[in-house]
Design a protein that fits this description.
Blueprint lengths: L10 H10 L6 H11 L4 E4 L6 H15 L9 E6 L3 H14 L7 E4 L6 H7 L3 E6 L1 H9 L10 E4 L2 H6 L3 H10 L5 E6 L4 H10 L4 E4 L10 E8 L4 H11 L5 E4 L3 H13 L5 E3 L5 H12 L5 E4 L1 H4 L9 E4 L6 H8 L9 E7 L4 H11 L5 E6 L32 H7 L28 H6 L9
Parallel strand pairs: 1-6, 1-7, 2-4, 2-5, 3-4, 5-6, 8-13, 8-14, 9-11, 9-12, 10-11, 12-13
The protein binds adenosine monophosphate.
């Protein structure tokens, strides 16, 4: 399907897509939308960034329009489960944007914020509820919500749900929704445990898949920098000062490690913010907003906190620590090269992380080129006064002299695989940068702001 017209979506939805300037369905949308419109259960293997939110949101909105009725009190017709609060908020934004011409009734139920407002929002019932599993169960147990009227159940990022220990919550929730329903199940990877869960939840599902995990990395320029443990911090600041960074996410394995990296970078005159599970919801949102708006160009994150963050224009992913679960590497580097852009992923690897590197290379079926020589603690990198993270390039490990400064856009254009400068290498375009410099989510959602969905604690 090369245009949205062929899906037969209702006019208000088609109009919203025109507002969004979506012209061509992404591959996951082309595969999923006709099947979901036909009422099929779906198991989809797709990462965030492939357009999967619209792939499930558009057929759901279409179904709501076709069968519109007032929801019963304290019930919802569509339940979308998300592993993280951030992703849940983004899904709500997407539903609101695509449903803007049909006054869709969509509510967010996430932890980390007081429950009263969510309880009140549910009193008269809602059409679409997007929730994280723990808070959803709290609402059910508190008699604020019944799940017996759910027609469509969406499970987003199922593999991450499993990683985050939500499997029991998911099973409890599934037991409470009617057996007669449509289920749309999405996961970036399909390990056995996820395949089993899908097998239990879905009825004769159609399988759709885009960018299998092993090939996701193709558009991303990957590099390994071998480094001694003691030289990691100085190597990180060298990379951040020398690379042409628009926005970078730096991954650490632990929350404590994330905070430590922020402090160490501050000593090297590099401003960064951390986002992880020990931060309050308000802190996480403020850090994310600064990052989105370009006030902070470097975000330090743990895997779980970063999961589902939908920010376009991330030029670099840096793995300060290599993940011990190889699939996490693919999730991490997938934060860049979103919506058709290219990206750079640089991973520091200490000698004791070498086994992790081997597992990653096995999974992605390629050897990641190493740059630079083995770095040891001495000589220490000396911060260059006044040079910020995105300032003039100092010295890119192993790449010095390859390209003169100021050539970034040209280089990025040249790396598009279709060979036509300025064109995207995949079928869909990201939402354009708006006046505030924000990228990413559908325009309508951004312009309305998020304060209604995320009350500050
Ligand atoms: P998702 O994978 O759902 O997080 O979507 C990734 C990004 O792609 C979001 O910023 C969407 O607004 C954008 N997007 C989704 N579908 C399309 C499309 N068909 N054309 C252009 N942009 C799209």
């Amino acid at each position: 399907m090369t245009s949205f017209d062929g899906f037969g979506l209702a006019e208000p939805i088609a109009r919203a897509l025109r507002d969004e300037k979506y012209v061509t369905p992404t591959p996951i949308q082309a595969q999923t939308i006709p099947l979901a419109l036909g009422g099929r259960d779906i198991v989809g293997i797709a990462q965030t960034g492939t357009g999967k939110t619209a792939a499930f949101a558009l057929p759901i909105l279409n179904q709501i329009l076709k069968t519109r009725r007032a929801p019963e009190k304290k019930t919802c017709r569509v339940l979308v489960l998300s592993p993280t609060r951030e992703l849940a908020g983004q899904i709500v934004d997407s539903f609101k944007a695509y449903g803007r011409h049909m006054k869709v009734n969509v509510t967010l139920a996430i932890g980390g914020v007081p429950m009263g407002r969510q309880v009140r929002a549910l009193i008269d019932g809602v059409e679409i509820l997007v929730a994280t599993p723990g808070r959803l169960l709290d609402l059910v147990r508190g008699n604020a919500l019944r799940l017996n009227k759910v027609d469509v159940l969406v499970l987003d990022e199922a593999d991450r749900m499993l990683d985050m220990g939500f499997i029991h919550d998911i099973r409890q929730i599934v037991a409470k929704v009617p057996a007669e329903r449509q289920t749309l199940f999405f996961s970036a990877t399909m390990p056995q445990a996820i395949a089993q869960l899908a097998g239990q939840m879905l009825r004769n599902p159609a399988e759709v898949a885009v960018t299998p995990v092993a090939t996701t990395a193709e558009r991303i320029e990957q590099r390994i920098v071998h480094v001694d443990h003691a030289a990691k911090v100085s190597m990180l600041s060298t990379i951040l000062k020398s690379e042409p960074i628009d926005r970078a996410i730096v991954f650490t394995r632990t929350k404590h490690g994330a905070d430590k990296v922020v402090r160490n970078l501050a000593r090297a005159n590099i401003t960064a913010e951390a986002i992880h599970g020990n931060k309050s919801q308000g802190q996480r949102e403020r850090a994310l907003a600064s990052f989105r708006q370009g006030r902070v160009r470097i975000l330090i994150a743990t895997d779980i906190a970063a999961r589902g963050i939908d920010v376009d224009g991330i030029s670099h992913v840096v793995n300060y620590d290599l993940p011990n679960v190889p699939e996490s590497y693919v999730h991490r580097i997938g934060r860049t090269a979103r919506a058709g852009a290219d990206g750079i992923a640089i991973s520091l690897c200490t000698p004791d992380e070498a086994p992790y590197l081997r597992s990653i290379e096995k999974l992605i079926r390629m050897k990641i080129p190493a740059t630079g020589e083995q770095r040891t603690a001495a000589p220490q990198h000396k911060p260059r006064n006044g040079v910020r993270a995105a300032g003039p390039r100092a010295h890119a490990p192993g790449r010095e002299g390859e390209r003169p400064s100021g050539e970034r856009s040209g280089r990025r254009r040249r790396r598009n695989r279709n060979g036509s400068p300025g064109q995207k290498s995949v079928e869909h375009r990201p939402a354009a940068k708006d006046a505030a410099g924000q990228h990413g989510r559908p325009r309508g959602a951004q312009s309305r702001g998020r304060s209604d969905q995320h009350p500050r604690p």
